[in-house]
Amino acid sequence: MAAGVLGLAVVGAVVAGVILALDLVMPAWAAALVAAAAFALLAGALGLVARSFARRAAPPIPKTAMHQLKLDVEWLASRKRSSNGSS
After folding, report:
1. How many angstroms separate the CA atoms of 87 and 84, rounded?
2. Sign (positive/negative) of CA torsion 8, 44, 48, 21?
3. Is the entire prediction scored with pTM above 0.85?
4. How many domains does the chain have?
5. Count of alpha carbons within 13 Å of 9, Cβ hemisphere only?
6. Residue 43 CB contacts under 8 Å (≥ 6 apart), including other chains
7. What are the angstrom distances between the C-alpha of 80 and each of 36, 72, 77?
8. Which range marks the domain in which residue 64 is found?
9. Ordered per-residue pLDDT tens for the chain, 87 residues
10. What is the maximum span of the chain, computed from C-alpha positions, in angstroms?
């Protein structure tokens, strides 16, 4: 958890550094706007990459749980058959 918080602090420092560097060649408001647009494009590109990975990934199949469920259904069916025959 602490690593995540420190990671966010690093991201904030990088953003501030980019804005301050751009401030040397343009007004501060424009530097902030350019930095925001650049980071938005980067976030969008990374989102598209993540989406393509997610689409190619196979859904997880809980093989053990499915096997146990089949056994439970068979057991329940055998109990129902045996209770029907004894009545």
Report:
1. 6
2. negative
3. no
4. 1
5. 6
6. none
7. 65, 12, 5
8. 2-86
9. 899 999 999 999 999 999 999 999 999 999 999 999 999 999 999 999 999 998 888 777 788 888 999 999 999 999 888 887 655
10. 91
